[in-house]
Amino acid sequence: MAQPQNGVSAEDVKKIARLSRLHVEEDRLAPIAEDLNGILAWIEQLGEVDVEGVEPMTSAVDMAAPMRTDKVTDGGKRDEILKNAPKADDGFFVVPRSVE
Amino acid sequence: MSDLTKMTLSGALDGMAKGDFSSEELTKAHIDACMDGADLNAFITTTFEQAIEGAKASDARRASGTVGKLEGAPLAIKDLFCTEGVKTTAGSKILGDFTPTYESTVTANMKADGMVMLGKLNLDEFAMGSSNETSAFGPVINPWRNDVDLVPGGSSGGSASAVAADLCLGATATDTGGSIRQPASLTGTVGIKPTYGRCSRWGTVAFASSLDQAGPIAKTVKDSAILLESMAGYDPKDSTSINADVPDWVGACGQSVKGLRIGIPKEYQIDGMPADIQALWDQGIEWMKAAGAEIVPISLPHTKYALPAYYVVAPAEASSNLARYDGMRYGLRVDGKDLADTYERTRTEGFGDEVRRRIMIGTYVLSAGYYDAYYLRAQKVRTRIVQDFENAWETCDAILTPTAPSAAFAVGRKVSDPVQMYLNDIFTVTTNLAGLPGISVPAGLDKSGLPLGLQIIGRAMDEATVFKAASALEDAAGFTAKPEAWWK
Amino acid sequence: MFIAPRIADKKDWITTDTGDWEIIIGLEVHAQVASESKLFSGSATDYGSAPNTQVSLVDAGMPGMLPVVNEFCIEQAVKTGFGLNAKINLFSRFDRKNYFYVDLPQGYQISQFEFPVVGEGEIEILPIDADGNVGEPVNVGIERLHLEQDAGKSVHDLSPDETYVDLNRCGVALMEIVSKPDMRSPEEASAYVEKLRGIVRALGTCDGDMEKGNLRADVNVSVRRPGGELGTRCEIKNVNSMRFIRQAINYEARRHIDILEAGGEIDQETRLFDSVKGETRTMRSKEDAHDYRYFPDPDLLPIKLEQSFVDRIKSELPEMPDVRKARFMADYGLPEYDARILTSDKVKADFYETVAKGRDPKIASNWTMVELFGALNKAGVELEDSPVSADALGGLIDRILDDTISGKIAKGVFEKMFAGEGTADGIIERDGLKQVTDMGAIEAMVDKAIADNAAQAEKAKENPKLLGFFVGQVMKASQGKANPQAVNEILRKKLGL
Ligand SMILES: [Mg+2]
Ligand SMILES: [Zn+2]
Questions:
Q1: Considering only CB atoms, which residues of chain C are within 8 Å of chain B?
Q2: Is the pLDDT of residue A3 over 50?
Q3: Does position B10 have pLDDT exceeding 90, yes or no?
Q4: Pick from B101, B271, C102, C229: CA 20 to 30 A from residue B148's CA?
Q5: Contact C164 A97 (CB under 8 A)
Q6: Confidence band of C288 (pLDDT split at 50, 70, 90)
Q7: How far is the C-alpha of A84 from the C-alpha of A60, rounded, in Å?
Q8: Do C72 and A69 touch (CB under 8 A)?
C-alpha cells in the first residue's frame, strides 16, 4: 500500500473490538488478528492501482443532495417510538446508567 | 386445475384477469407449497393468515374493477425489508422481536399494487454472505440437489430458493455485491439489480448504503420486469433516490437485439474458471450473435481490484450502519454489569461471526492512521472502475459475463479462508461499485446438472436495454429445467 | 509548531513567583439553528415538550431510516457565515462521526468534518473588564462553521441505577462555530461569545438563549510564557453563561499554571465546569481513546450550492451589529458607549430605534439605557418581556419634550408605567401631574416664597447662588408641577438678578 502495513496485532484487535463495542476473549485476540491480516493482505493489492489525481467516489449517484423545506411533518408518535424498547418508563427509554 | 404454483407471475396475473382462478385459490396453493417446502428453510416468518385475508381483499378489489400491477399475486419478501406489524430480523438475532411500525417504500409500493405477502424470507445475516449460511435462522437449502444439500447462494438465498421451488411467484431481494444475481444463478432463477437509486432504500435494513440496491428474483425475465416496475420509483425520503419515471420495462422484454453492441470483457476470463462456465459464456456469445447482436471485445482493466475495494467500502459503511444495534431502543438487549458491558454483550451475542468480522474490518479501515491507505484508496479505485465502464460504453451498449464463478456448492463446505467465500461475487460486485444495472439469466446446467446463469450489465438508468438483451438470452437458452421436488 | 502570534496585554498576564503567563483561548460555540424542524427529519424542535414526543423514526435511529437535509438550516448557516465575514463554501459534505452513547441513536453523529459549509472568517470584539472599562478592539479569527445534529438528553435522577433517555433534542440542527485560538483573557472570551450571540440574533439564525442551551460554548484553554510556545490545551465542555465562561477560564488557567510550576505536565483532556463550585473537573476517564472514524455519510449526497442561492441570501441580510453601531453614531449622534450597548443585541437596537423615531435621539437613548434597562436589570426581566413597550416609552418622552411634565416628574411616571399602571398620558391625567405653565399662578407662588423668606430674599439679591433655594420652595409648593424654566425666569426678575 501507500505505506507498508505491519499487520494487525492482538493489541489492535482489542482496540478495534472496543471501538466496535464487541467483546473478544483474550485467547481469541491473536486468531482474529491472523484472520483479519489474511483479508487485509488480499486487500493490499489495491496498492497496485495508480490513483494519482483520482477523486474518491463517495456515492453511486452523481447529483447534489436534495433538500426538504423546513416544515414539521413528523413526530408526535411516542408510542411507536417506544414500542420495541427493551425497557421504557414514563415516556422515556430506560437504559443502564450512563454515568457513575 | 393444473398446479397453480407452476405458473409464472405473468401467467398467473393473466389467469386471474381472465377469471380462471382467484387470488385466494392461487394464494392457498402457494401456502400449501410453502408448508411442503418447510425443509428448505426459505422463510423466517410466514404470514399465511394475513395472506389469505389479503387475497380475499384482492379478489374483492378485482371484482370492483380495481386491479393493481401485482393484483392478487402471492409473493414473498426478503427479511431485510421492514414490514409494518410483521417481525423483521435481517437474519440476525440482534433485532430480537423487532416489529416495525412502518413499511419500507419498496414493499409499500408492492402492497399498493395489490401484492399478497406470504412471509419474510431467510437471508445471510444483514445480507453479509454468499451462501446463506450466516443467517441466525439456519442455512437455506437449494431446491437443486446433487446428492448432498446445496446452498442457494446469498445473501438473498431465501428469495432464490423460494422462487426456484415454486413457493411463491416472485420475491424481493437486495444486492450489495451480488446478493440478487449470484443466488439467482445458483438456483436457476432470474434476478436483477437495477441502477443504484432506482429502488428506495427507505425502510430497508442497511448493509452498505452506497452499494445496497433492491430488486426482484423471479421465474422469468418478464416477471422480473413486472416486479421491478412495482418496486422502483422516486422516493423523497431517500436522498439517493433518483427522480425519474419508471419506464415500460415489460415492454422492453422481447424486443429485438439486432444491432445491439454486446461487450465481452477480457478481464472476466479469470484463472481457474470452471470449463462449464467458460463454455456457457461462449455459448451465450453465440446466442447473442445469432439474435443479431454485434459482439465487441472490451477491456475493464480494474476488474480484479473491484472485490478488494468492495471489502473495504462495504465493511466500512456496515461498521457504522450497524452501530445502531446496541440494545438501547429496540431489539435484543443482553444485560451486563454496567452500560459498557451491556453494549458489548448485546452486540457480541447478537451478531454472528461474519458480521462481527466485517464490523471489525470496517472499524479498522476507517480508524486513524489507516483511513487514507484503505478507505480513501478504495474510494479512488472505485472511481477507476466507473471510468472503466465509461470507456466501455463508447463501444458497447451492454456487457455479457458469467454471473458467478461456480455452481451451487455443498452446505457446510469448510472454508477456512474467508476470501475464498468472497470470490463468489467476483463478477457481480463491479456493478455495485459503479451503480449499474445487472441481471442474471439462467442459461444452462453444468455437467452435474446444476443451473448456471449469465449476466447482462447495462448503462446507468438503462434497464430497458438490460431487459431486452436478457430476454433474448432467455429465449435462446430456452432454460426450462426444474429441480426435482424432493422436499415435498 | 503553530505559535499563536498575538501576545496578551500585560494587564492580562498572570504573574507568579516564577514569572509571567498568558492564557490562550479558543472557543467552539454550538448555536442551535432557529428552524421549525430538525436537520434531517420533519419532527419539531420546540423546547420543553413531553419526552420523546418530538421524535421521528429517523431521529430514533430505527432500521432503514434515512436522513434528508433541511434546506432552511443550510441557508441559516450561510447567513451566519456572512455575519462572520467568512468564506461560503459552495461545496460541502456531511460526514459521520462514529461513537457509542445512549443519547446517540444512530451510533454516529452526522456532522461536517472535511468540507464545512462555511470556512475562515473574522470578527472584531471589544473586551470589557469587570469595572466596565473598554479595552482595545481585538480581531478573532473564525476557523469554520459547520452543521451537525444535536444529541438527545439523558436524565439520571429518575432512577438510582438507570438512565432515562429523551430523544426530543436528537437531530436538532446546530451550527458549530470554531474560533482560532485568538483570545487572551476571560473578558475577551466572553466578549467574543457576546458578539457571536449579537450576530446570530441580528440574523435571526439562532435565538441565542443560553439558559435553554441554544447557545453553548466549549472552551479550549492553555497557558504559555508570554509569546512562547503554546501549552497543552484542555477543552471545557458546554459552558452556558458568560460569567461561567470567565470563571471556567480563570480556574483552568490557574490549574495549568499550578501544575506546570510544580514541574508537572498537562494532560490533554475534556473537562466539565461545575458552576456550583466554580471549578473544572475531568470528565469520567474513558479507558478508550476516541477514534471517531469520520467518513462521508453514504446516505447523503454532497451539498452543492448555486452561487445565485448564496447571492440571494447575501442580498437579504439584515444590518449587522457593527454596521448598525456606526450608523447609530453617525445618524443619531450617539456616543460610542451608547451605540455599542444598544447595538449589542438586535432586540435592544430595534427597541431603541422605535423610541428614537421622531424624537431627540440622545434623550431616547438615556431613557432606554439608563431608566428602562436599569429597571429591567433590577427586576431581572428580559427586554422582550418589558412591561413598558417602546411606543409607551416614546409616549412618556413626548410629554417631557412638550413640557407637559418635567424630567423629574417623568421618572415617577415611568416607575408607575413599569409597575403596569398604564400609559404616560393616563398616569399624568389620573395623578394630575401636568406641569403648571400658567404664569400668573407661578408668579403668585414666587411672590409667596419671597414673602415667606424675606431675609433670604435680601441675601439672594447679593448672592445668586441662593436662587436654588427659592426654586426648590416654589417647586415644593407646586408639588413639582411648576415649569422649572418659568419659575427660574420669574424668580430672577423678582429678585432683580
Ligand atoms: Mg467540537
Ligand atoms: Zn459539535
A1: 57, 60-69, 96, 98, 100, 102, 105-108, 163, 165, 291, 293-295, 298-301
A2: no
A3: yes
A4: B271
A5: no
A6: low
A7: 33
A8: yes
Distance (Å, whole) CA B485 – CA C97 = 51
Domain covering B4-260+397-477, topology: Amidase signature (AS) enzymes (3.90.1300)
Which chain C residues have a beta carbon less than 8 Å from that of A15? 288
The C-alpha atoms of residue B405 and residue B427 are separated, in whole angstroms, by 7
Query: Rounded to whole angstroms, what are the CA distances from C408 to B114, C363, C370, C475, C487?
Result: 83, 14, 14, 11, 15
pLDDT digits (tens, 9 = 90+) for B38-52: 999 999 999 999 999
3-state secondary structure C162-213: EEEEECCCCCCEEEEEEECCCECCHHHHHHHHHHHHHHHHHHCCCCCCCCCC
- Min mean pLDDT across B456-460, C87-91, C203-207, C277-281 is at C277-281
Domain ranges for chain B, please list them.
4-260+397-477, 304-379
Per-residue model confidence (pLDDT) at position C403: 84
- Name the residue among A40, A46, A63 with its Cβ closest to that of B309: A46
Decide: B360 and A17 in contact? Cβ < 8 Å: yes
- Cell numbers 504573574 correspond to what residue? C15
Polymer length in residues for chain C: 497
C-alpha cell at A81: 417510538
> Reduced to 3 states, what is the DSSP secondary structure of residue B454?
strand
CB contact under 8 A, B240 and A59: yes
pLDDT at C338 over 80: yes
Sign of CA dihedral C281, C283, C287, C291: negative
DSSP result, B155-170: SSHHHHHHHHTTSSSE
Peptide bond into B367 cis (omega under 30): no
Q: What 3-state DSSP class applies to B203? A: coil
Give me the pLDDT at residue C81, please. 98
Q: Domain extents for chain A?
A: 10-46
- Minimal C-alpha gap between A36 and chain B (Å): 7
Written as nine digits, the cell of C154 is: 439523558
Whole-angstrom distance, CA of residue B150 vs CA of residue B410: 4
Residues with CB under 5 A from ligand 1 (ion): C 28
CA of B200 to the centre of ligand 1 (A): 33
What are B267's three cell numbers? 478481464
Torsion, Cα of C97, C101, C103, C106 (10° steps): 50
For residue B142, give the DSSP letter: P
Please determine, for the modelled complex, whether the ipTM score is greater than 0.90: yes
Q: How far is C111 from chain B (nearest CA, A)?
A: 14
In DSSP terms, which residues pair with B171 in a beta bridge? B76, B217
Helical axes B9-18 vs B23-36, angle rounded to 10°: 140
Q: Quote the CA–CA distance of C101 and C119 in Å, as a whole number.
A: 29
Residue B304 gets which letter from DSSP? H
